[in-house]
Design a protein that fits this description.
The chain is mainly beta. It has 9 helices and 44 strands. Helix 4 packs antiparallel against helix 5.
Length: 753
């Protein structure tokens, strides 16, 4: 009753948090004094009432793999969750001076849960499991201090049932899972995984990695007789990684390989022949045999069609699985600088590739598209019955002999075959040197290199929802993901705030970006950028206007049309849009060595800093996801987030007009951070809780007078000018800021008016 009475009194005083807190405290004291009650409370932490075992996905195909690949696990056995209870009691109060006999205790019961389970990995036998991830976070699998108790089975044909499972289920109830690689995890503490079994993925090393091995196995799985399969010139082709699922067709698996490796497959006389592209015996076609039995003229016996430049691809893109980025999805591209068209060819493969190899594959494909631009059609007698799809021919054309590859053979009139072929060049398939065509591979995963990370605290960008949003970009030459930790106690302890950061495109300027002008194309300036890793590409003007190729150079947001590779990992950027998204005040003063970051959803992560964290110099540590925060490769820095994305943009059209008596009327136009498209007779959104500005008069670099106004207008009277300068001024330097309730002053507009 005492507490209720005092709370009511506090309400009559305004019911603010302070008085309510006092009321509760005093009431509690009166309760204890008046009633001398012993207070005993009990609390529970971590109690779960509905823990369910994750079940296996029925019908999931068993994966077969080659090289090294990341494979998702599928639960095949598990126990019920085991509850662990820990109880502690803490006493307080009682027996104090003045009697009353109060006091009490708090009993805390803490619950935790463990579970044991087995997860199928892939078809065996495998060589080893190199790494594993739980819910996307890497867990240590080898050496000391492994965080989980597990037994790994490689999937050979002699493996025995797991003793741990046998001890629970009985010897007669446990299969050996021969031919299946799987892992048994014992008594896993699931608290850190939301009291559930985490999603597990594994980096698996398989015993085979040759393209020949893959073709032989997939053809056998398709029911084709092995003796009918012939392979020529592909013995040294090796994959970094490739997985084959039971639900994939023979054709799709072969096409995935052909996207990367230069070989063709064709049927002949009941056999299937796979041959390295551009190799094999060459059949010479006699000019007299063209158009045989057709009485055609020499000019009409051979038809040649050359694809115009405008119809050939300017850009080739490849989607793949990146070995350098912990098997995340990767994209590489190659743009032909001298091409006049705008066509883009998109390729997709399920192969694992190094990022550098992926770029070289796109270059190789581009060379092939352009080399085969000339196609031929002609007829041959059955004398040339051995000429089939894939056959190389020497063809008489324009008084000389050219090499072509047959693409199709069809049967026309009796005794005649209709042939189509396309021109090839001798170096088309060999000019780009690739590791993909060399035998052997490293026996251990390459060591992650030191991570470069940038926190980008810039103006608000499209789709940047909320206040205090910054971007994170990370990169390294050998990239396995990155973690970012933060310390709020000056480096004493760190907590993980962002895990498995995707690979970014980061570098430094080699040259200084010259001064330019905002709002129009800057076709005079260019800047050279050297990247840590990744690639850049040119885009059409309309694509750039729609948001493509956005980057930050120093603190200026820039877009570019052209990206030309001028040296290893070095690009020249030109066709620029400067000072984008309100960063026009950073256009001047660039120097060599400034940061370059490509800003795209595929290459940056978003981090939202709460208002309480703004303007605080927190300590951050970052490094490879393969290591922990204390590893020597981790780097430490102090960063103060200023929430520039929440700053109002600088007003525009700052002008002044003289009124009677010498008063100066200062006006400007408000800008918006979002939804600023032009609309007839409609002002842009305010983006703030209220419209407020500070208009400042500047003298000798100092703001000597400030007008706080709620409209885009201020009056600097003649009397005020006289007070500040000794008389009415012909010109005055003025600064205007829009004011944010959360961020304060926005970006400044400064003019002499």
């Amino acid at each position: 009753m005492a507490t209720i009475a005092l709370t009511a009194i506090a309400g009559s005083l305004g019911a603010n948090a302070f008085w309510l807190g006092v009321a509760g405290f005093v009431g509690g004291m009166l309760d204890q004094r008046l009633f001398a009650a012993k207070i005993n409370t009990h609390q529970e932490i971590g109690k779960q009432s509905d823990l369910k075992m994750q079940t296996a996905s029925m019908g999931t195909p068993i994966i077969t793999g080659y090289g090294r690949a990341r494979v998702a696990g599928n639960i095949i056995w598990g126990t019920k969750f085991t509850e662990h209870v820990h109880t502690s009691t803490q006493s307080f109060g009682g027996g104090g001076k003045g009697g009353g006999g109060g006091g009490g205790s708090i009993t805390t019961t803490t619950y935790s849960y463990t579970v044991s389970f087995a997860t199928a990995i892939c078809a065996g036998p495998i060589k080893s499991v190199l790494r594993a991830w739980a819910d996307g976070v890497e867990i240590k699998m080898h050496g000391a201090d492994v965080p989980i108790d597990y037994t790994l089975y490689l999937g050979d044909e002699v493996q025995q049932p797991d003793p741990f499972i046998v001890g629970i289920e009985g010897a007669d109830n446990v299969p050996a899972y021969r031919g299946l690689a799987y892992i048994v995890v014992k008594d896993l503490d699931v608290g850190k995984f939301g009291n559930r079994i985490p999603s597990l993925t594994f980096e698996v090393e398989f015993p085979e990695d040759g393209v020949e091995d893959i073709i032989r196995n997939v053809t056998r799985a398709a029911g084709l007789p092995v003796e009918k399969i012939h392979m020529e010139g592909i013995a040294n082709m090796r994959v970094e990684g490739f997985t084959v699922a039971g639900d994939k067709t023979f054709r799709s698996q072969i096409e995935a390989l052909q996207t990367v490796f230069p070989f063709d497959g064709f049927a002949y006389d009941g056999n299937i022949i796979f041959r390295k592209r551009g190799t094999g015996d060459v059949v010479t076609i006699d000019a007299d045999d063209l158009g045989a039995q057709e009485n055609e003229s020499e000019e009409s016996a051979l038809t040649a069609v050359r694809t115009p430049d405008i119809d050939l691809p300017k850009t080739v893109k490849l989607a793949y699985i990146s070995k350098d980025r912990s098997y995340q999805d990767g994209t590489a591209s190659y743009t032909k600088a001298v091409a006049h068209g705008v066509n883009e060819v998109s390729l997709d493969t399920s192969l694992v590739l190094k990022d550098s190899d992926a770029v070289m594959v796109t270059e190789q494909r581009m060379k092939e598209y352009w080399a085969s631009r000339t196609s031929f059609s002609f007829k041959l007698s059955t004398r040339y019955a051995t000429v089939q799809a894939g056959t190389l021919i020497d063809l008489p054309y324009n008084g000389r002999s050219v090499k072509a590859m047959v693409t199709n053979v069809s049967y026309g009139q009796p005794g005649l075959n209709e042939i189509t072929a396309h021109l090839i060049h001798g170096q088309t398939f060999a000019a780009v040197k690739r590791d993909l065509d060399t035998a052997g591979k490293e026996l251990a995963p390459p060591t992650p290199t030191e991570v470069r990370m940038e926190l980008i605290d810039t103006a608000q960008l499209p789709n940047m929802e909320g206040a205090g949003v910054v971007f994170i970009a990370a990169a390294s030459k050998i990239y396995y993901g990155a973690h970012l930790y933060r310390s709020v106690d000056n480096g004493v302890s760190f907590s993980l705030i962002k895990s498995d950061i995707r690979a970014g495109i980061i570098g430094d300027t080699v040259s200084a970006l010259g001064a330019g002008t905002p709002y129009t194309w800057d076709n005079r300036s260019s800047v050279d950028v050297r990247l840590v890793s990744g690639t850049l590409e040119s885009r059409q003007e309309i694509d750039v206007l729609n948001g493509a190729n956005l980057c930050i150079i120093g603190e200026e947001l820039v877009q570019y049309r052209s990206a030309v590779l001028i040296a290893e990992n070095t690009y020249r950027l030109s066709g620029l849009l400067r000072g984008q998204f309100g960063t026009e005040h950073h256009i001047k003063g660039h120097i060599p060595g400034e940061r370059f970051v490509r800003i795209h959803a595929d290459h940056v992560e978003k981090l939202t800093a709460p208002t309480a964290d703004w303007f605080k110099p927190y300590v951050y540590r970052y490094g490879s996801a393969s290591y922990g925060v204390t590893h020597e490769s981790y780097r430490q820095t102090s960063v103060t987030i200023r929430a520039n994305s929440s700053m109002p943009l600088a007003p525009c059209h700052l002008e002044g007009q003289r009124a009677k008596g010498g008063d100066l009327v200062i006006t400007w136009v408000r800008r918006t951070r979002g939804d600023g498209d032009m609309k007839d007779y409609t002002d842009v959104p305010l983006n703030e809780t209220a419209e407020r500005y500070e208009c400042c008069i500047v003298k000798d670099g100092n703001e000597i007078r400030t007008f706080a106004v709620h409209v885009p207008r201020a009056v600097y009277t003649a009397a005020e000018q006289t007070e500040d300068f000794g008389g009415i001024q012909g010109n005055v330097r003025v600064r205007v800021y829009q004011i944010s309730e959360t961020r304060g002053r926005g970006f400044v507009r400064e003019e002499i008016i």
